[in-house]
Amino acid sequence: MSDRQGSGHTAPGNSGDRSPRAALIGYLVGLALSVLLTAAAFCLPLLGIVWGPAVPVALIALAAAQMGVHLVFFLHITTGPDNANNVLALALGALIVGLVLVGSIWIMAHLNDTMMPGMLEQMQR
Amino acid sequence: MTAATVRPDVPISERGPAPKSIVIAYGFWIFLLSDFVLFSGFFASYAVLGSATAGGPDAKAIADLPLVSGETAVLLLSSFTCGLAGIALNARHARGFQVAMAATALLGGMFLLLEVGEFARLIGDGHGPQRSAFLSAFFALVGCHGVHVTLGLLWLTTMMAQVWAKGFREDVRRRTLCFMLFWHALDIVWIGVFTIVYLLGAYA
């Protein structure tokens, strides 16, 4: 394909040298996995097969898995050497997203904990 | 474009700059990652303010799961049809491309309609963004995703028009590939939204 000209890189979203048929099968596999994971996420709490307090963790695990499916089958991020740049950029993005999320939740929970009784009610007035 | 082939014998440092299509797609990938960082800020504020309901409805009260599963289904299908449009783009199959893109636009439009209906119902019930910090964070996060989908639809129809008017020219191809990255990325953000806002809200 014209996007691989010996530079040793592949652009994200580029499915490489695959035939249309192989590419279609890739998208179908991705869609099937996504449907499966989404259905599991929506049905899991209703089925009651997971211990109640573990449901949030299970839901987050399912979401992470589905994001992985989308990255691999729809955005064509692979572990190949020609994808190293894409994966490194993704890792930096994931690191910053993680820092923002965990940092905010941690700091704000800590601030809430160390508030004196009644301070929150006063602030909300 | 066909003259150059993969040359493993030449070290990467001596192969010269990567072709434009790769540089552009990689730059757009960096933008998408920065967009994820933007969304992480909205997710963080939602997580922090999720319990600040000020006597108004909480996440459990506003999570309409049948509606959300419908939104999720149409957005996921639109991501798939977008992939089909990508296959048609690579095969330079104009009719297949237009049909797949139109299906993507239709599904994306259905998602937006469902979301606008949900927002209208909440605001009509007096549960607008001004009701509580929780609802402000909710509308900011879900609304920001909705704005992205709206802009994506504009971009989508623009690419349909450009391919129709100019054909599969190299620059049109590059823009369309960037759009496809954008659309798939929006679906990834939606996974976070339906899990953290709706499912965790309803069940946790």
What keyword list fits this structure?
heterodimer, A: 125 residues, 2 domains, 0% strand, B: 204 residues, mainly alpha, 6 helices, 78% helix
Describe, in plain words, how this protein is organized in 3D.
The complex is a heterodimer of chains A (125) and B (204). Chain A has 125 residues and is an all-alpha fold. Chain A folds into two domains: 69 residues; 45 residues. In chain A, 67% of the residues lie in helices and 0% in strands. By secondary structure, chain B is mainly alpha-helical. Helix content of chain B is 78%, strand content 0%. Chain B has six helices and no strands. In chain B, helix 1 packs antiparallel against helix 5 and helix 1 runs parallel beside helix 6. The model of chain B has no long low-confidence stretch (mean pLDDT 92). At the A-B interface, helix 1, helix 2 and helix 3 of A face helix 1, helix 3 and helix 6 of B.
- Indicate the structural class of chain B: mainly alpha
Biggest interface, and residues per chain?
A: A-B, 54 and 65 residues
Q: Return the average pLDDT of chain B rounded to an integer.
A: 92
What sequence of helices (H) and strands (E) makes up the elements of chain B? HHHHHH
Q: What gyration radius of chain A follows from the Cα positions, in whole Å?
A: 21 Å
* Radius of gyration of chain B, whole Å: 20 Å
The main sheet of chain B comes to: none
What would you call the shape of chain A? Answer: flat
Oligomeric category: heterodimer
Q: Give the structural class of chain A.
A: mainly alpha
Write out the CATH superfamily name of chain B.
Answer: Cytochrome c oxidase, subunit III, four-helix bundle
Helix run count of chain A: 4
Shape label of chain B = elongated
Helicity of chain B, in percent?
over 70%
- Average pLDDT of chain A: 85
Number of helices in the DSSP assignment of chain B: 6
